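fyi for ur records
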Amino acid sequence: MEWKLELVPVPVTDVDRAKEFYADRVGFHLDFDHRSGDMRIVQLTPPGSACSIALGVSGAPPGSAQGLQLVVRDVDAARAELAARGVDVSPVRHLGPDGWADGRGEEWNSFLFFGDPDGNTWTV
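which gave:
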């Protein structure tokens, strides 16, 4: 049996602000924006991903999604793209023997970090 993760709720205070951040600044594809009465669901997918995020469907406190992870082939190019789109993104860092250090590590050990307007955090 296959088990596929396809949707991760991201708790936010303002769906419109979060939608703009993820679609226009981070570059996620807007899959749909649906409203039914008082309920609204906005689904977005990172380019090339089989898993999407959903805004507006979580009972968790806004900003409580911490350390969501995106995987890219080129962390430097990803950082440059996010910075060019106006995302406040960390320098590329790696985990060394004394903890986090600036600069690239080995192929598997180079990361950058950013957060959305509600404080949900991402590791790339």
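Strands lie at 7-10, 29-36, 39-45, 52-55, 68-69, 93-96, 99-102, 113-115, 121-123. thats all i got for now
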